[in-house]
Amino acid sequence: MADKEDAEPVTGRPRSQRVNSLFSEDELIEDYYDAPPANGGSGWSDNDPGPRPPAPAVSDGSPGTLGTGMEGAAAAPLSPTIKAGWLDKNPPQGSYIYQKRWVKLDADYLRYFDSEKDAYSKRFIPVSSISRIASVGDQKFEVITNNRNFVFRAESDADRNEWMRTLQQIAEERKSKPPERTSMFLTTNGATDLADKSGFLELRGFKHKLFVAVAGDKVFLYKNAEDYRLGIGITYIEMNVGNVKEVDRRGFDLTTPYRIFSFSADSDQEKEEWVEAMQQSIAEALSNSEVAERIWAVESNRFCADCGSPKPDWASINLCVVICKRCAGEHRGLGPSITKVRSLKMDRKVWTEELIELFHQIGNAVANQFWAANVPPSEAIGPASGTWDRRRFLIAKYREGKYRRYHPLFGNQEELNRALCAAVTTSDLAETQALLFCGAAVTCATGDPQCPTPLALAEKSGQRLQMEFLLHNKTSEPPRLEAGCSEEKPYSVPLPSVTHNGFLYKTPSMAKPVGERKGQEEFSRRWCTLQDGVLSYYENDRNAVPNGEIKVEEIVCLVNNPPHTHGIESTFEVYIESERLYLFGLESPDSAREWLKSIAKSFIHPRAEELLALDFERIGRLHYKGGLSLERAKEGWFALAGSALHVCFEDSERQEPLQLRKLQELSIQGDNEVLVLVERRRTLYIQGERKLDFLGWVHAIQKAAGSSGDTLSEQQLTESDVPLLVDRCIDYITQCGLTSEGIYRKSGQNSKTTNLLEMLRRDARSVRLKEGEHQVDDVANTLKRFFRDLGDGLFTARWGQDWLQATVLEDEEAKIGEYRRLLGVLPTVNRATLKALINHLFRVQRFSGENQMNTHNLAIVFGPTLFQTDGKDYKAGRVVEDLISHYVKIFNVNDQEMKKQQDEIMAIMKMREAASSGTQQAGDFICTVYLEEKKTEAEQHVKIPATMTAEELTFEILDRRKIVMKEKDYWSCFEVNEREEAERPLHYSEKVLPILHCLGTESYLVVKKQMSMENMLIYLASRVGDCKHGMMKFREERNLLGLGLSTGFHDRYFILNHSCLRLYKEVRSHKPEKEWPVRNLKVYLGVKKKLRPPTCWGFTVFYENEKHEKQQWYLCCDTQADLREWFATFLHVQNGGSLWPSESSKVRASRSQQDSRLGNISLIPLRGNESEMRNSVAAFATDPLTLLRNV
Ligand SMILES: [Zn+2]
């Protein structure tokens, strides 16, 4: 089975050291003198006169050219070896002894190594630099490059000839490749520009500094800068197996499975840059090229739209052009109002199907027909053009529109707008492009009240791609020829110098929030100027000495008040570092907006300039922690617009919006010090350094995170766009009320329903519906009331009548078709909500035997509710009845989804049956949980409500035993599997009930301290990047067909990233042998002894795919630390980075779990079978004394 030829077992440390020793100073000297002086050698420079520096980027060539790179594109671009063997290399000067070298040739490099097992070469010579191969007698041959010659001796003439033939052939092939592959390296100023970062670094083990270049997905080591220019280096490191870690102020390690490279930079600033460049390189090596491959499927997209470089992997998503990395850098300088730059490989989120399709339809071909219709050859740029030329060209091309093809309507604004409104209803994207970039206004008035904007027109006409194009150009500015100033235009100055002046109304500055409304008389009119980074205010416009001034660099926040907040129509607040705020006002909203924009522009960091395009109500800088490094607070730029908080994080170039209404948690910690925002995938801590502006942010964010009105889309939402309120009610009824007789028909208590609805409307996120506290009928009526009072209704005023009309269609198929069509035009939130509700009703009627609510009865109740009618129109009920009856067809529910729902119904049924044997309340489930270990004294019996999380259960148990959780006591709930001899700490937010349902008889729950948590948290906080890779011992569960392939444990190489775990047979394998989505893995600590695990640090992993096929396998690590790191990474990935709850949720959880009926009396352990036990506990729940009396 083992592939001997390619086998390069990595056996850990000894190997690394051996390789290490090979990079000695000797090695540096070895080749140093064996080359003739640059032009003192034979005059063999054939057709290639000048120096031809083969740059590191040559290596970017993955095997094959663009067209063939389809399969395994995501794998590392390792070139397959074409020829390899032992050769003698001629001795360095001063020595007569030939050195035995393992020589390897692939499509890109000729490399030689000390031994065939080495991962890192002693020398690499780019094939592209080889000009000739010559025979020099004695079985020797010479590899001639433009500057150096290398002599090798083979064992026989035949061997020598074979080498020469192969080398010649490969070198020829390289030369005959299309020029664009190599022409980009013919730059006159050397290869410098092609590397992402290059320069000198100390490498441990070397006396002299090495010249290091990070380029694409590799890091290249050269003896010196001259070698770098020539392209002849020592070795390169494939970054798909790399990991970078900062060590001290100037030092950092690049770790690979073969060797640790310990570098040291000249300064900490330099170090930061190197680490960043190398991380970028790792990201590139591990990035997914699926999007790129799809976009490159169109020929013209395979070359940069601006300079023609091959394989461009960046794009401007509003211009719809694919561009190279260097052009992308210049695009970014133009600003997001002109071009929005994204990576094809790294920005996976933006690449929707629509956008990809748009790049097929427009892309470089159609875009350049417009943008580059008239480029004079003297101004065009090529792959090798310098930064300055590139910048000048791109400014002319996109900012000024100098080369564009003018639309015949150019200059006639009204006509342009009218033409745009017409174009967006057709599929003619080229026309829309031409109109938009010749001045048509993307938000012009259409004159149609139904569809007020071109976007709405496109939507109505079903033109998805037009919509996509318009959306990305919502904030685009049309090109403008600015005479004379085009080249002086600041490219990226630290703070743009903004000038603005005029009269403003102003109050004295304050050290407290503006509490109450300020009357007009409290403002004084002042002449204000914004100039050279200072906002000054003067008594009047003739005064030369200001009354006061604000330095823009001291501004931390700018707030745009809603109109008429004070006695002057438009007001805004300026907060400064020293905790003061200035209130300004203007009668004219337009001038106020201009002031706001100017001030914002003056103090916002250029990297956050994207935020300026937003219609923000608040903008500024704040300190935050988040992501991987929690120990250091970073500075981010924030803008609040509507219900989205847009953030430019310190380490990312683009702003990211957080949808505040979709937050899972929003809380404030400490004494108003930290605002915690929990999103599905991450947690963000915003720190209140300065009280004044921070409190303003907190209130504004809290307000924006709440519901803002009574329509659906204004509610707090779940991830799937269903109002949280609806989700909470449905969830509660599903857990507690499916079998409740007359559910949704019986009325609840009016006052309770009113209160509950108000609470949920205000902040559904903070409401927990609990049994005992809330009655099923009250919750059911709350849900109904919500829909009945809903602004615009669930079916919307616009479409409601169409739904009712559909019921008269006699043909069943036609009717279903019409419902589906209508469903398609509903706004997203309405559609998601309707689906969730009908899905719920579909379940409710499945229990009609018990609850008496069949489809018809439900329809009678919900028809008038949802259509907000008086109930006289029978059609409303018909719609609901049809929707429930044809639920599967209308909502396109697939088998998998259906199966999942059925499983859930089964689980609920089971619970019902169990419950019906006692007097238990609906939804309760009693379970035995142990404290610290499984023994009878440690038993606790706990009622598990549907909403209980592992954290809450832990607190329940600790509370009962009066155990106080101290800091760094990581009490957790574990699921222990006795059969597998493995256990798994539940994540604190995991719901316990579903786990109980699938807990086998050999499993139980125990609450104990999680000893490794602290170390895991430290590890996660200290590491760089969010993936892990390395060797582990792997064993698969025996083949179920009984073929008896007991395989034992074998070394395998694993890479775990944010989405999947990949297994490679060898460290250097191109393609993973197996790949599992992390979400579908359940990882337990421990491996059963029967399997004779090779170390005691193992995992048992269960995998279940969508088809419910199960696999089980085992992994072993060499050290405990390694095990911890792997486990921490798994948890980190599976739980969106949050391993341990924040302080506030602990407090809340512990309080909310005080069950009044149980008080603090701990339950007395019970004996007997499960149902006896349940009965007793249920009885206890009703009257605690009965139980105590029995004892
Ligand atoms: Zn380019």
Notable features of this structure?
alpha+beta; disordered C terminus; 35 helices; 21% strand; 14-stranded antiparallel β-sheet; seven-stranded antiparallel β-sheet; disordered N terminus; single chain; 1191 residues; binds zinc ion
Descriptive overview:
The chain is α+β, with helices and mostly antiparallel strands and 1191 residues long. The protein is 32% helix and 21% strand. The protein contains 35 helices and 43 strands. Strands 18, 19, 20, 21, 22, 23, 24, 25, 26, 27, 28, 29, 30 and 31 form a 14-stranded antiparallel β-sheet that branches. Helix 9 (353-361) crosses helix 15, helix 14 (454-460) runs antiparallel to helix 15 and helix 31 packs across helix 32 (1120-1134). The radius of gyration is 35 Å and the shape is globular. Mean pLDDT is 79; it is low at 1-77, 178-193, 483-495, 918-923, 1039-1044 and 1144-1191. Zinc ion is lined by residues 304, 306-307, 309, 323-324, 326-327.
